[in-house]
User: What shape does this take?
Amino acid sequence: QQKVQQSPESLSVPEGGMASLNCTSSDRNFQYFWWYRQHSGEGPKALMSIFSDGDKKEGRFTAHLNKASLHVSLHIRDSQPSDSALYFCAVSDSGGSNAKLTFGKGTKLSVKS
Amino acid sequence: GALVYQYPRRTICKSGTSMRMECQAVGFQATSVAWYRQSPQKTFELIALSTVNSAIKYEQNFTQEKFPISHPNLSFSSMTVLNAYLEDRGLYLCGASPYWGNYAEQFFGPGTRLTVL
Assistant: This one.
């Protein structure tokens, strides 16, 4: 069973709209969540991490974690064409430098101008 | 800022030959380096995690005999794909982590794309 489930597989939103991405961990040992973004031809880049219940906001990006359900979401407000990319949720069993990340299969976001 | 470089960006090798790829961290000390393979379908597979002063830990289905890794200092790591075959093709990514407090982000390079003929 895939340890990290992401949905939807792909998403299209208009420029200026809100994009919402979802991620669920199936292993209660894995409670440290990261969101990564990968543009075509590049390596993934961390957007934000969230380790505690509730919301975490960084600019136009807001992550929400519910530890009881091991579910995290990422909301992108005022979406821009430059936000078009693959978004990966990654989980680990610790937040330390030797943490092993397990990635989901990703959500492809397209922002149409 | 923290940057990770990977060399080469693209490489083509004949089936059964070997290919070495490098990863360099700039602007921070790479306490840990993880090597991944991203399939053409974009899924990630963790190959191994190397932490300074600890043994390199390989994931199931990946072995040191097939993917030997070197992590000689806090800025450099290399990995070789030995006897490469078609199923080894993909984008090989290194993710390097510094130790900044309790939580560490993995900084990724752009990857080495391996094509096997």
User: Anything to note?
Assistant: The mean pLDDT of chain A is 93. The CA atoms of residues 25 and 70 of chain A lie 5 Å apart. Chain A touches chain B through 24 residues (CB under 8 Å).
